[in-house]
């Protein structure tokens, strides 16, 4: 779990992390297929359903992370349930720890 959080921090510092439901949904409309969406384990069922709907529509991968919103808060200083990494190589860096 610490490796996942560390890599999310690296993505944030590199400017390749988009956080929040509205911000990530805005990326779907830009049709950026070079991204992977991550959901926290405690994301609400409605949030999960909406994100998966948009992701299926635009052919974007969605992955559930074994971290909570409070874990995300520790690295981003704000609680988020939806995160998007907009660089495929950086997303793979996180996926290898799942």
Describe the protein's architecture and organization:
This protein is of the alpha+beta class and 98 residues long. It has a single domain, classed as 60s Ribosomal Protein L30, Chain: A, CATH 3.30.1330. The chain is 52% helix and 15% strand. It is built from five helices and four strands. It has helices at residues 2-13, 21-29, 45-58, 69-76, 88-95, and strands spanning 17-19, 36-39, 61-64, 82-85. A four-stranded mixed β-sheet has the order 1-4-2-3. Helix 1 packs across helix 4 (69-76), helix 1 (2-13) runs antiparallel to helix 5 and helix 2 (21-29) runs parallel beside helix 3 (45-58). The radius of gyration is 12 Å and the shape is globular. The relative contact order is 0.29.
Report the principal-axis shape: globular
Kindly state the mean pLDDT as a whole number?
A: 92
Count of domain modules: 1
Q: Report the structural category.
A: alpha+beta
Using the coordinates above, name the CATH class.
Answer: Alpha Beta
Number of helical regions: 5
Order of SSEs? HEHEHEHEH
What name does CATH use for the topology? Answer: 60s Ribosomal Protein L30, Chain: A
Percent of residues in β-strands: 15-25%
The CATH architecture category equals 2-Layer Sandwich
The CATH superfamily appears as Ribosomal protein L30/S12
Outline the biggest β-sheet: 4 strands, mixed
The span between the termini is 9 Å
